[in-house]
Amino acid sequence: MAKTLLSFGHGYSAQGLVRLLDPRGWRIIGTTRSADKAAAFAAQGVEPVLWPDGDLTEALAQATHLLISAAPDAQGDPVLARYGAQITTIAPRLDWVGYLSTTGVYGDHQGGWVDEATPLAPSTRRGQMRVEAEAAWRAIPGLPLHIFRLAGIYGPGRGPFEKVRNGTARRIIKANQVFSRTHVEDIAQVLAASIARPNAGAVYNVCDDDAAPPEDVIGHAAALLGLPLPPAVAFEDAEMTPMARSFYAESKRVRNDRIKNELGVTLKYPSYRDGLPALLKAS
């Protein structure tokens, strides 16, 4: 039987995985809300399904693997709300299920280290909704669930260079603020390694080795471009969206030993100092 991945909320990280699975002969079904994105998926060899309007009953019946990228909302996990009963029914015959969560479930540790055993204590509503969604997926009996807690994602089309080039970048300074990051290609290789070596119930932090202050990343991008250092702005004085400001509510360093020790992953980009030059070269 051909391996079939049904990707709910087929977005940036999921598309990175497809680039690894497609040459191996996988059938990929991806959901989207947009007709334009559906056409783009089809051009990439992905079978698009408009969702939540479309019917995924047949796709679920054929799937051997599920990837859930769709974010929860105030009503809970949207995939389980619509298809929870059917997923429960087919759970024992699925080979692998991956749920893309966030390191935001750990909350604020004032720059301290967290790992997969750290108690979950989100400090934002978005983080709390992720904790609740993780628990809802865990509650399905017999589901070969793997949870991936992703740090800040960057990669092609998602780097700091455009803002540095157009002069809108700022180095926002907040004492003891550090973020972990992950390149989309490293997310993809972690997911592929887990599919190859499934371990139902496992949780993996997906991040690089170099949790760093955000102003350092902006400064490095400017240096790579040969442009002046963007101005420094104190966090208290910075004009930011509520979403952007919420990221600064948490500071932590995330350990990634498990993806290396259990899945045998060697990061392609262990630091933004590796990832940013590669992005610039490819642009």
From TrEMBL:
Descriptive protein name: Nucleoside-diphosphate-sugar epimerase
InterPro entries named in the record: NAD(P)-bd_dom_sf (IPR036291)
Keyword NAD attributed: yes
Key words of the record: NAD
Keyword NAD: yes
PANTHER family per UniProt: EPIMERASE-RELATED (PTHR43574)
